[in-house]
Specification:
Elements lengths: L11 E4 L2 E7 L8 E4 L4 E4 L6 H19 L8 H18 L9
Parallel strand pairs: 2-4
Antiparallel strand pairs: 1-2, 3-4
Helix pairs in contact: 1-2
The chain binds zinc ion (ZN).
Zinc ion binds next to helix 1 and helix 2.
Length: 104
């Protein structure tokens, strides 16, 4: 099922000046989103049915991009990394109205 997005998504994020491409594209079953470290691309699956779900995936993957950008991945295990980005995304959505900046 393809979600209907009210929210517009930018073509890229900036993580301390580094461009991270952003795209909506089919992913393998069960994968909501992923960050390709080598190509610096965040891919969000079109399965999301709400803006909130989409934003959670976006914040989660942006967290991964940030962690790699500042090399925290060298200091914490992948499980810890995953735990932090996921819970931080949940807390942000719980407390803030978030929408991505539409950069040109
Ligand atoms: Zn993750």
């Amino acid at each position: 099922m393809v979600g209907v997005y009210l929210m517009k998504i930018p073509k890229f994020l900036l993580v301390f000046g580094e461009k991270i491409k952003l795209r909506i594209k089919e992913l393998p079953y069960g994968v909501a989103a992923q960050y390709d470290i080598d190509r610096k691309i965040i891919t969000i699956s079109p399965i999301h049915e709400t803006d909130n779900g989409l934003l959670h995936s976006l914040l989660h993957e942006a967290g991964h991009a940030l962690f790699y950008r500042v090399s925290i991945n060298q200091a914490v295990s992948y499980e810890t990394h995953e735990f932090i980005v996921n819970n931080y995304a949940t807390m942000l959505l719980e407390n803030f109205d978030i929408k991505p900046k539409l950069k040109k």
